[in-house]
Amino acid sequence: MGQFPNWPLFAIAGTWLLGRLADDGTRLADATSWAGVALWLYWGSDELLRGVNPWRRLLGAGVIGWQLARLVL
Questions:
Q1: pTM of full prediction above 0.85
Q2: What is the predicted pLDDT for the residue at 1?
């Protein structure tokens, strides 16, 4: 019995792909962009709080920092 793959990463890939297909300044492009940011923040905070080792927790903190920097800049 295996572990279910990390679903937020699949969702992030889906929003990225949909955003590339709808990259014309429409509401769909904006929605996929915001959904991607929200999913990255969710994934980062999940890793930060429940990561299986220090590397995964550090990776989660880095992703949160990266996304917050993108939002500010």
A1: yes
A2: 61
